[in-house]
Amino acid sequence: MSDLTTEKIETLPDLAMSDLTPTVTLGTGSFGVVKLVKHTNGNVYALKFLMKTHVIQLKQVEHIKSEKNIMAAINHPNIVNYVGSFQDMKYLYICMEFVQGGEFFTHLRSRGKFPNEVARFYAAQVVKGLAHLHGRNIIYRDLKPENLLLDKFGNCKITDFGFAKQIEYKTWTLCGTPEYLAPEIILQKGHNKAVDYWAVGILIYEMLAGSPPFYAEDPLDVYRLILRGDLKFPWHFDKAARDLIKRLLQPDVTKRFGCLKNGANDIMQHKWFEDIDWSNLDARQTNHCIVPKIKGGAADTSNFDRYPEEADMAQPISDEEQNMYFADF
Predict the structure, then answer these.
(1) What CATH number labels 17-100+299-326?
(2) Catalytic residue among 142, 151, 238, 266
(3) Sequence spans of domains, the chain
(4) What pLDDT score was predicted for residue 6?
(5) For residue 78, how many C-alpha atoms fall within 13 Å in the half-sphere facing its CB?
(6) What is the C-alpha to C-alpha distance for residues 304 and 307, in angstroms, rounded to an integer?
(7) What is the maximal distance between C-alpha atoms in the chain?
(8) What are the residues facing 157 on neighbouring strands?
(9) Rounded mean pLDDT of 84-99?
(10) Which contacts qualify for 23-32: CB closer than 8 Å, 24 or more apart?
């Protein structure tokens, strides 16, 4: 049995760009990029650059501030943890731990599908991370393989909190990835943490089958398949896995696993997870994981795609009124 561990990530309240040296680009998005940075303390982190002009133009100011505040409020071994944030005239910056093993999606696609015990281990880690969020009234709303990372020990971490939201009862925004949307989101009935447990069912299915259960080229066709609910399983699916997936992909929210009186415990105590020692899961004692190949030291990025390093084209915001938008970032 391998003895896996996880590194403790401490926040840096007085973070500034003068402490950091950007190196390679790890990913790109609508508002900017994520780069690997080296801190004067010797550690490496992932730094998200959010272009202020784009954030304002796309009316995402409150959205971005909410994302930062949610990240700052959570800390869990199965979540990409927040290190600090700051800003200058061009950018908002969110600094996070660097999760060195790369995208979960890449590892899944390279293998086609996972054996039952591997899918079970990663599903367990995702359920633990979501339960941590839900305990703080935060719904995640964007679970999919592309939003999971593997650390260098093979542990799974939830990343990208752009759609996460703190709620008391329900919210009505249509958001997420078509194949992973719960029926109540599509029907715009209002939704809550139940949508995350629906997405866990989709994820388990995709890990075991190599593709999600409801798939089409056109998102509208995907929505029709989800609402029709015609769930078919490949012959090789474990019987207990089928049962759990059916209970998670339950259109009636009042009957969906994770939403009953025992909450996430109904999922954790299901027969499919009977070989999971949930206390040992926290201690990272397992054989059932994929340990990424790390070719160098702590700054090795070989598990990430290569991106061209582009010149900084961001324009500074000189308007004092516009800069006030970010006064509490």
Answers:
(1) 3.30.200.20
(2) 142
(3) 17-100+299-326, 104-283
(4) 53
(5) 19
(6) 9
(7) 63
(8) 149
(9) 95
(10) 23/299, 24/301, 24/306, 24/307, 24/309, 25/307, 25/308, 25/309, 26/301, 26/304, 26/307, 27/304, 27/305, 27/307, 28/307, 30/54, 30/58, 31/55, 31/58, 31/60, 31/64, 32/91, 32/314
157 near 99, Cβ under 8 Å? yes
Active site residue 218: no
Asked which of 252-261, 269-278, 284-293 is least confident by mean pLDDT, the reply is 284-293
Pick the closest to residue 53 from 319, 326, 314 (CA basis). Answer: 314
Distance of CA 158 to the CA centre of its chain: 3
Q: Nearest to residue 22, comparing CAs of 8, 39, 9? A: 39
Q: Residue 271 — pLDDT band, cuts 50, 70, 90? A: very high
Q: How far apart are CA 50 and CA 91, in angstroms?
A: 5
Q: CA dihedral defined by 275, 118, 79, 171, rounded to 10 degrees?
A: -90
What's the mean pLDDT in 173-199? Answer: 94
Token pair belonging to 130: 């979501």
- Residue 255, judged by CB atoms within 10 A of its CB (0-12, 13-18, 19+), counts as exposed
pLDDT over threshold 70, residue 2: no
Q: For the segment 28-64, what is each residue's pLDDT rounded down to a tens digit? A: 877 779 999 999 999 999 999 999 999 999 999 999 9
Which tokens is 126 given? 């995702």
- Tokens standing for residue 323: 């800069």
Write out pLDDT tens, residues 211-243.
999 999 999 999 999 999 989 999 999 999 999
pTM score: 0.93
Amino acid at 35: K
Residue 123 pLDDT > 70: yes
Using CA atoms, how far apart are residues 80 and 132, in angstroms rounded to an integer? 13
Rg (CA), the chain: 20
CATH superfamily, domain 104-283, is: Transferase(Phosphotransferase) domain 1 (1.10.510.10)
